């Protein structure tokens, strides 16, 4: 029997008992579905790694139902971190903070822990009912696309967990931004220098909270950078992720597909093309040619609304996986604002 449960008070009380008994519960957030366990229990956290087939050195994010509880599990050290918490939480953001000793060593084997306060009301109700910190990576097999529906969770790990709280489709469709605040290695003695300017914000995993958003929040006083330094601090940074069994190729123009497909054209090779509405509408004749050549066209959203591309991405990857697609072509998007985060996931799925 499929372990789907509606988001009701009765479900949350059952989930609380499961979590207290060191079981796993999948739940929706505004980004993707998470696979949750008691972050204070070594036994429970190790079950996450076993079910996902996840490397043990890939850290987990700890979810809380209320930002007032952050100081129970982590230490806020400066005003930059506090302003981020006050302004951007709850939301699709994970902030790395020094952890307190009762967080399971298996959740994060480094001195920092990623703290997240989801804005999704089902996630918040679940977390507030459970009243425990919940370690939760994406509720899928490692390396595969992150789930954005309860059915996607079930297709990945549903036969190994007792409960999936079905909250419908995730709104954003890509995991939270992960950021870290560090003090610059500079001698700050000038009284004219702003206090915020002592710090640097590192974006370890990009998404909806962008570099531009963080720069605007601090009115340019805090430097913000994308970084791949210290990949052991953030999930999704050390290994190939978000992929499918078939090959993923990024294309810049439809002529790239024509050239690539000439050598592999065969009705036995299943090819899907993931492209924006604008590219599809501006090339109707070539699109029809691709369809005649046994290719399938999938709409990807629009370049005028990149959030629509993010919302569909993992759902379409999952569909490609379920259909045993041999080759998936994915259109390159502008790498700015949230386009940077989308292409980060696409590149990792293609093995970059």
Largest sheet: 11 strands, mixed
Report, as a whole number of angstroms, the end-to-end distance: 39 Å
Shape: globular
Q: What is the total tally of β strands?
A: 15
**CATH-scheme architecture of the domain at 4-70 and 113-165:** Alpha-Beta Complex
The CATH topology assignment of the domain at 4-70 and 113-165 is DHBP synthase
Portion of residues in beta strands equals 15-25%
**For the record, what is the CATH homologous superfamily label of the domain at 4-70 and 113-165?**
DHBP synthase
The tally of helices reads: 12
Widest sheet: strand ordering: 1-8-2-3-7-4-6-5-9-10-11
Helix content: 25-40%
- Radius of gyration over C-alpha positions, nearest whole angstrom: 21 Å
CATH class of the domain at 4-70 and 113-165: Alpha Beta
Query: Could you spell the SSE succession in H and E letters?
Result: EHEEHEHHEEHEHEEEHEEHEHHEHEH
Mean pLDDT: 90
Unreliable segments of 5+ consecutive residues: none
Class by alpha and beta content: alpha/beta
